[in-house]
């Protein structure tokens, strides 16, 4: 009975649990820090469990519709709606469920990590409240079925993210980074809100399925598309709108940076939802597809070349995050460019999309792992400059092993997960344009060179006297890193299982605009 209630209301509980936990956290923290820590871990664990239950339901039974306030939440068109989806509706298809899995895994691993990484810091009540609100924003963005609520959750995501970036102040530098993140997020939010107004003014609807069934690709629709793509690509950290990323990623606490990667991916999800689901058949596939491909190539190349010259370990990793976003844009861009050519779509378009989507979860795992290892190093040494670090392999062996796993994965070395998703991208994109595939491979080689330099700078060499007292990272931090490392290895060893189970359904859900519309408006 309880299981049925949870399953039936999983989309609502996925937000209600972390939201209620966030508001209660400061009150509990006033009385007991231990109780607060247990509370936030329990809330994140329950949220992750609900996320997995929801995802399992979607992958086994199809798209889940949840209408808030309706007698039958599974119906998007209750009898009193007049045939129009007017209530708040969550539409969780395979692509949404895929993103929920990413947020659930990352949120749980990072929450465990923070139990030690934030133990010496003050203001933990607010920190954990913002952490849980960030989870709310991410989950809401990937589950909602209407544009206005997408904007609301985007704002929750942005406000919580900006506050967490600035949370440790760090002589004002972190505040500056947080302010920059907030300004960029506000501009992006205004773009999204203005585009929503343009669409609502024409079609009198906010529901994505309703809009997708009505959209005509008028001049105003094209303006709305440009604004949405610009805002969401900027929030995703794509070049040339990536300038906030190095500051925000490098100044946020290590644990939060790992979660900001997922927050940025929620905006990337928004890009794909807009072009594949909202516009789809009315789009000029080739033009928009190539725009996304160019953004991807620029992100890959600019990100990796900027990373090569960095001396700050977190700033270097931030530029690599920009570079890896390019692979996802490239894969999905190729899929969109051939969306109108069934033969090309069947031959390599879907595979390119699978590669890009697979890379999203791989990136969240190994890049999150790398940011957590950087956080562990800074936690123990207080130093982030590569020129001042060295010899830590003697005292932080587990952290070194986790770093190696993350570094080999991001460089696309077998048998780690990054290799599996990049191979799908290389092979499929080569059939579309050999030049693009070669560029992607060259970027991977540069990525490997960059991380060899980082590994040598941090871990190799004799033990330095200034680090004589440095110990391995605390157990909760190792457990958090271990979870992401284990998934990185597992996804590399059995990529077919991951692709067949969750990646291919997500790719097919994206291209099936008719199925998305029918799941909400009927006719499936």
TrEMBL record:
Signal peptide: none annotated. Keywords: Cell membrane, Membrane, Transmembrane, Transmembrane helix, Ubiquinone. GO terms for molecular function: NADH dehydrogenase (ubiquinone) activity. InterPro entries: CPA3_Na-H_Antiporter_D, NADH_UbQ_OxRdtase, ND/Mrp_TM. Residues 145-446 form the NADH:quinone oxidoreductase/Mrp antiporter transmembrane domain. It is a multi-pass membrane protein. One of its GO terms (biological process) is ATP synthesis coupled electron transport. It comes from the Archaea. It holds the Pfam family Proton_antipo_M. Its main location: membrane. This is NADH:ubiquinone oxidoreductase. It comes from Methanoculleus taiwanensis. The lineage of its organism: Archaea, Methanobacteriati, Methanobacteriota, Stenosarchaea group, Methanomicrobia.
